[in-house]
Amino acid sequence: MIKTFVAAALLAVSLTPTPQPVPGACATSTAPPPQSAPPTSVNTLRQAYYCVLDNYYSGPALDSRTLLRNAMSAYTQELMRRGADRDDLQLPALTGNRDTDWAAFAEALGAGDPAALRAAITGMVAGLQDNHANWVEPRPEESEPTGIGIAGVSAAYGSRLDPAARPPLFITQVLPGSPAAKADVRPGDILVKANGVPAFIGDTVNQSLVDAFGAPGPARLTLKRPTTGRTRTVEIKPAPVTRQPPAVTSKTLPGGAIYVKLPGFFQGAADQVIAKLQGKPEAVVLDLRGNGGGSPREVTRLLGAFAHGKVTSYFCPFEGDCVPNRTDDSVPLVGARLVVLTDRGCASACDDFSAAVKGNGIGALVGTRTAGAVSGPGDGYLLDDGSVLILPKVRHLGPARETIDTVGVPVDHHAPMTALDLATGRDPGVAKALDLLRGEN
């Protein structure tokens, strides 16, 4: 079920063939999780614990006591939330020896509570504070996804809201034919409240809005239309919704530049963009706003259409030498001037692409600073309950070995989209790009 409008794909996951998992071990995943698997058990938590220590980028330096403290904290909070706390459950004395500590921890848990164990894995992974480390629970396959059809908001930032967001928060995408579209919710509409929870507290975005919006049942939204100033409240019931697969679109701008919208670095994305440029345009405006990332290979391939012989980024292990990533020089050069449009929704592989463009002088960046959610590409590890643990094995650095993660890539020309711009069809990013291509400052 689509429960929240801020879900975005920030993870570039590399999957490698290996055997099926065995008790006490995790295995890299090559396919979707099985439809039927045992419930989450203490052994599942053990797999996750050792998987982090053995496979995470800084696993060798992690303190096992911290992992277990985070797991126990989340475990007991889940029990308390359900009124099922145990008077005999407490965190045992931990020594820092990962095997001894696990044995004591497992003895304290006993048989374990499946729901609390799932919370423990989530808490343990969240404690890594890594935007590319994630745990994906096994979920039954739905015949039809349901939701209200709001597919984007201005402060979207992975699974939460951008802490740097400034008011107002407004709708950026509504799925055609969805319940929201039928309720006349439009891009540019300002979201004042969701289920009674305000979008901002003062000038600070309210992270509680995510849970409020994701609550089961109808969504009660208070919206303000920027073109009229009218405020209204609508109640929208979830229903089956259809989201089209991502695809590259293009159009010709005044003056002959080709505008290309790239929603993600999905498999084949680079070749889709390159196909749009076969006419050898003099200039390209590449719109990466809202691009949640994808494959690093698609990044280097697309960059190869605009520059050859460049280092685009580095992947650095915890110990040892960093490995440079380079432009795919098998791609013929387009020979066009490049302007890239970015925003805070440009994350992961999009951060990577933007940093390479700026660092190598390949083109100009217009819009707002990127998300800075590019800790490193992740591998997926299958656990015995059918869930998947995603962990980066390397750290990403920009082309000058600079840190992009948590910082983002600054633009050359600031041109944010406003609610009124979106509601009236104006695009300050494209307007600025055209000014630059005409030689105007």
Low-confidence regions: 1-24
Largest sheet: 6 strands, mixed
Please report the number of helical segments. 11
- Global geometry: globular
Strand order of the largest sheet: 16-17-18-21-22-26
Mean pLDDT equals 90
Distance between the termini: 46 Å
Backbone CA Rg: 23 Å
Structural class: alpha+beta
| Quaternary status | single chain
Helical proportion, percent range? 10-25%
Proportion of β residues?
15-25%
Q: Number of DSSP strands?
A: 26
Present the secondary structure layout.
Elements: E1 13-14, E2 27-28, H1 42-55, H2 64-81, H3 98-109, H4 114-126, E3 134-136, E4 146-147, E5 150-153, E6 156-157, E7 160-161, E8 171-174, H5 179-182, E9 190-194, E10 197-198, E11 200-201, E12 204-205, H6 208-213, E13 219-224, E14 231-236, E15 239-240, E16 249-252, E17 258-261, H7 269-276, E18 283-287, H8 296-303, E19 311-316, E20 323-326, E21 337-342, H9 349-359, E22 364-367, E23 378-382, E24 388-392, E25 395-397, E26 413-414, H10 419-424, H11 428-437
Parallel strand pairs: 1-23, 17-18, 18-21, 21-22, 22-26
Antiparallel strand pairs: 2-23, 3-24, 4-15, 5-8, 6-7, 9-10, 9-13, 11-12, 13-14, 16-17, 19-20, 19-25, 23-24
Helix pairs in contact: 1-4, 2-4, 7-8, 8-9
